[in-house]
Amino acid sequence: MTPESIKKFVIVGGGTAGWIAAATLGNIFRHSEVEIELVESDDIGVIGVGEATIPPLLTILESLGIDLVDFIKHTQASFKLGIQFDDWHTIGEGYFHPFGTLGRSIDGHDFFQCWLKSKAEGDDTPLMAHSPEAVLAQQGRFFLPFEAQGTPLASTTFALHLDAVLAGKYLRKFAEKSGVKRTEGLVESVSRSDKGLIKSVTLQSGVEIAGDFFIDCSGFKGLLIEEALETGYEDWSEFLPCNRAVTVQTENMGDTTPYTIATARAAGWTWRIPLQHRTGNGYVFCDKYCSDEEAIETLLSSIEGQPLTEPRVIPFTTGVRHKAWNQNCLALGLAQGFLEPLESTAIHLVSKSLALFVRLFPTAECDTQLSDEFNRRVRQDYEEIRDFLVLHYCTTQRDDTPFWRWCQQMELPVKLKAKLDLFKVHGGLIPGTEELFQPTSWYAVFDGMGVEPVGYNPTLDAIDYHKLKQSLHSGKTAIQTSAATQPSHDEFLRTYCPAPKI
């Protein structure tokens, strides 16, 4: 007998995760009889995950057929070339983590190894001088794609800073045009079958909404995945101890930087995310070392511009559900897990989970072979990102507060320790093909945090160093020259994608 296909999806919770799911599924089933209904309530505030994003967001928009300029205007977005990290290694020092790729291989040799060889020969050119994104960011510029062809800027990679609430509204409009039904209401109870599958949710109004598959975007609460299915949550506080964040929005001041700023503080770190109409600010901290009142004071003393909102404290527990897909329920966003927003991975995890779900798309019976593979891969993604976040903390040389002294002594995840040990030999790094953070990201943080290998790959000694030096110099000069001819970030925004005044 042929298994029953899924005829109806029910998404519980709107916000960024819920409406990305609705837009994605709505787009896929636009010309079919599959129904998609999203339940949300205006009475529940949106936390607004992911105001800073990473480049895969642009792939999502493109796959949905969304016009990038239109999206930027409606979400008050600005461009992002990477993240500036200040005071993480020691107070007063900073480094840049760019998107994109560092340099190009030379005579078949990995670029980073070429740079290590040149450094060993006495060349003191910073690694980031070979990154188009880092150079553009340093100059406060953004690039004109049609003028970048044939230049080192042609491969420049970028993402967006955006207003998450406006992005949710934009995606809602898109999804509803695709046929997604929105129902206003609060879920009061969940009904399950004898096999344990979710059959329906009942709203406070008494309306019952049945479905074949449910997507839980209800936030930390996990209304379906946790309260109904009791899936369980794995706490990773032993690796990432920060468990609270305080946020505040401010008026814009000065130039709109084409990058996020993450500044290490006494018990965590603060972010600054410039949009076209305002700036988002926040302080991620550990309550073992800092009270809410101290965190608010630290944040307010660090912001630029007048506050537009009252400080808002958000508690969280870093970790991941034991199963992101359990029975006929898929958890997304905060209902799936939480990793602090240091590398802006929240929206990426939502979209990658959806892409993987589509690759493993089930019938109404939800074969566990599919969900097991899905859960294995999602966990792998979370562990990869967790380890990369831990790298920012464990390599610090700060010992000025109890928090940073704890970070220096923390026990490392096994895979991260192995990666550090391998790198320290002669800069080796072998990433997985589907991993988010490719070598440029690891090199940027290693270099910025002062993690240096003992040497370089010995095969570099067979290369003509004079020729190598000339090649590196030419590449660096070409990036600097090309970047200097580009408009400022603000000028680019005003000319090509100005957002309406709010």
TrEMBL record:
- Ranges in coiled-coil conformation: none
Q: Is Phosphoprotein one of the keywords?
A: no
Residue positions annotated to bind FAD are 14-17, 187, 334, 347
Q: Superkingdom of the source?
A: Bacteria
Recorded hits in InterPro entries, A to Z, give: FAD/NAD-bd_sf, Flavin-dep_Halogenase_NPB, Flavin_halogenase, Trp_halogen
Active site, UniProt feature = 80
List all membrane-crossing ranges.
none
Q: Which UniProt keywords apply?
A: FAD, Flavoprotein, Nucleotide-binding
Annotated 7-chloro-L-tryptophan binding sites: 80
Q: Does the keyword Repressor apply?
A: no
- Gene Ontology molecular function: monooxygenase activity; nucleotide binding
Q: Where does L-tryptophan bind?
A: 343
Q: Which Gene3D superfamilies match?
A: FAD/NAD(P)-binding domain (3.50.50.60)
- PANTHER family with a match to the protein in the record: FAD-BINDING PROTEIN, FLAVIN-DEPENDENT TRYPTOPHAN HALOGENASE
Name listed for the protein in its UniProt record: Tryptophan halogenase
